[in-house]
Amino acid sequence: MTPAGPGPFVRDPLAGKLPVTLVTGFLGSGKTTLIARLLTHPGMNRVAVVINEVGEIGIDHDLVSMSSENVSLLANGCLCCVVRTDLQDTLRQLFGQRRAGRIADFDRVIIETSGLADPAPAVQTLATDTMLSTHYRLDGVVTLVDTVNGARQLSTSAECRKQIALADLIVLTKEDLAGSDAVGPLLDGVRTINASAAVRRSCMGDLDPSELTGLGLGSARAGAQTLRFLGGGLDLGDTQQTNLDGAYLGGRLPGARHDSSIRTLALTFEQPFNWSAFGTSMEALIALRGPDLFRVKGIVNVDGDPVVVQAVQHIVHPPVRLDRWPGPDRRTRLVFITRGMRAELIRGLFDAVGSLHPRDQA
Ligand SMILES: Nc1nc2c(ncn2[C@@H]2O[C@H](COP(=O)(O)OP(=O)(O)OP(=O)(O)O)[C@@H](O)[C@H]2O)c(=O)[nH]1
User: 105: burial class by Cβ within 10 Å (0-12, 13-18, 19+)?
Assistant: First the structure.
């Protein structure tokens, strides 16, 4: 006798739900670069992007907006701390507006978490919010790891380890800067935390979209080791709430809280810069406080033109001149993620250097 087949009443519970990809990774690991590049692929033009940035100024939002119609910016703050309800509201609104035909139709959502975010609450929100789980399904967690800074971040940042632990796919970035010798040791560290995620390498966001989609219900998240990171509140059948942070470093670290001395400073400047004044200010800042400067990004008005500047710890990435302003705001907007620095110090330095470089001598 042949066993009975699935029969007419068995439905795929995920059918028809919009897949959501959570893109995470430590500060400056290349999330925006990857997403902006993905959106240029022909098959990725029906994607809504939700961006969660730390800092009051949405730089990533502006940059991604240049390649997608549907970009939502979550309120200032970190997904894991204050803006979880914002994520719920944003996804609900997106769905409602899509159904009402008020926004361009989309069949996939990509959420970029802030570099300091613990992605677990976002995973949890998608899994447990009844309305959201009716319309959306988590397709996978993609974690970017910067080959230049990754090894240090792994050993010093609980957020970084948690982002790796939750990954279905790990994308190693910036091998072009670090060299291929850096990959092996970094991968050993990554594997200590998450042995089951797929690993890909990507330079400047170069990755086929098919690698990031259809990651399924998270084989890595189903692993017992990974589930320990999710902590209380999400019962996925794990009974051992051991903190893997402690296992990795040999000492316990707080699971989901940020280092309270890490601060985000957002500065705007009304007057255009000349490039040499800006460059000298940045060099001075890095020389004075390099180790405390985790991340700098912004759009600088250089004699009227928009130039994107980026620094990730001691690495200053080449500035990129945009061919147009992303919006009407022409001010210089800079975000500094620092340890123990004050906005006045940075502004004072820029003002002092600026006064030595009058613009008419540019
Ligand atoms: N050389 C090189 N640079 C890269 C690569 N990926 C990203 N970058 C650069 O690294 C800098 C930071 O990249 P972003 O995409 O802004 O990183 P992010 O993870 O979105 O940054 P946060 O949102 O601040 O956490 C930019 O200057 C990028 O051009 C890469 O593979 N190689």
Answer: exposed
